[in-house]
């Protein structure tokens, strides 16, 4: 029952060809990409806030320089991704409007507070670690501009992940209080990091279609499993305890069994009711209104320049 256009499109996707801007695509494909890429962009932009909170309080000049660079990278990723979404016919103003009105989501993880310096290490280690796990397969996404954006972004995320692990590796060798601070950070960030991969497969409304279109290559649960298997030995190396009593190695499946994230908490956070949702959105809305004079100035300048050219 597929239309000829749609069948030809699916055949190209199945053959592993990239779809490029302005080529014909099903409306649902375009909408799914706008949703996912814009949410991804918003995540990078909102994701600057929890870490930005610590730039002025980093413990050394070196750590401060590293954190500044990381947060700037995230701004770059956001702008890069907004550009990728714009190729699908949505404007940046429309995307901001969707973020500010609460219509567009951003990653649940950024609605948790950064209470200590160890949280900054934990974000690099766990949050960037989860982001890489999710984004490496997106480099093979069927939509060319998104796939290509992911290549550079993944390289930078690897640096972010290592700097976080390095910061924590230093702290766990410090005083007992420093080590306890790292364990506390792991306790608070572990489950929210697992939630970054989205709801369990049976509750994931978009996965089947997105996988058929090769926007996603793996299911949410597959990537969550890979993340647990990769991260548990790293926690062990740091001498930390993963806060999951059900966590154990399963020889038969060659992976870990682990507990169920608190899905009620997850759905509550993505509905806008997490610990920092209001604070994050207010910060973004304030940045938007504080920048109004600058946008107005740019527009006025562009209009004058156009008038001069016309005259
Ligand atoms: N948070 O049917 P599915 C970063 C929503 S990394 C909020 O499974 P899908 C780097 C989902 O949108 C973080 N909402 O959806 C960084 C949908 O709602 P909708 C950003 C979530 O799309 C590190 C509903 O639940 N990375 O920023 C979440 O097939 C450190 C049903 O879910 C990306 O965005 C969630 N965790 O799969 C920056 C990666 N999970 O839209 C700063 C690209 C699900 O119908 C510091 N995105 N939802 O209203 C993806 O891979 C996918 O969109 C998933 C969700 C896997 C997130």
UniProtKB/TrEMBL annotation:
Its EC number is 1.14.13.149. SUPFAM superfamilies: Ferritin-like (SSF47240). GO terms for molecular function: phenylacetyl-CoA 1,2-epoxidase activity. InterPro entries: Aromatic_CoA_ox/epox, Ferritin-like, Ferritin-like_SF, PaaA, PaaA_PaaC. Gene3D superfamilies: 1.20.1260.10. One of its GO terms (cellular component) is cytosol. Keywords: Oxidoreductase. GO terms for biological process: phenylacetate catabolic process. This is 1,2-phenylacetyl-CoA epoxidase subunit A. It comes from Shinella kummerowiae.
